[in-house]
């Protein structure tokens, strides 16, 4: 299983970023998948989850109405559109999946929200 997140960067408060996660090594279309973040000095936090067919989506309260998760099963890609970014969104963002009872988190992408 390989997961590679990209699309992070430095953005001003109120700005937007779109994160992407390229997945391989498992049948992407048959797994729910998550975006997770870890801010400096804090525990890892599940930001958003999406079910197999996009029928169910979960967002942590702090990002509701600002972030949108989506997936493209044909391309084995996961996305996170992040709008109205706040300094407290600063973190390393990872995509995460549980396959065969094991949690995989690939290389993350740094998101820094600062003026």
Compact overview of the structure:
By secondary structure, the chain is an all-beta fold.
Tell me about this structure.
0% of the residues lie in helices and 53% in strands. A hairpin with a 6-residue loop joins β5 (45-50) and β6. It has strands spanning 2-6, 9-11, 17-24, 33-38, 45-50, 57-59, 67-72, 77-82, 91-99, 102-105, 109-113. It is globular. The mean pLDDT is 96. The chain has 115 residues and is an all-beta fold. Strands 2, 4, 5, 6, 9, 10 and 11 form a 7-stranded mixed sheet that branches.
The biggest beta sheet is recorded as: 7 strands, mixed
Mean pLDDT: 96
Total number of β-strand segments?
Answer: 11
Rg estimate, integer Å: 13 Å
Report low-confidence residues grouped into runs of 5 or more.
Answer: none
Helical residue percent band:
under 10%
Distance between the amino and carboxyl termini: 37 Å
Helical region count? 0
The gross shape turns out to be globular
Secondary structure category? mainly beta
Beta-strand content estimate: over 45%
Q: How would you spell out the order of helices and strands?
A: EEEEEEEEEEE
Topology:
Layout: E1 2-6, E2 9-11, E3 17-24, E4 33-38, E5 45-50, E6 57-59, E7 67-72, E8 77-82, E9 91-99, E10 102-105, E11 109-113
Parallel strand pairs: 2-11
Antiparallel strand pairs: 1-3, 3-8, 4-5, 4-9, 5-6, 7-8, 9-10, 9-11
Features:
seven-stranded mixed β-sheet, mainly beta, 115 residues, 11 strands
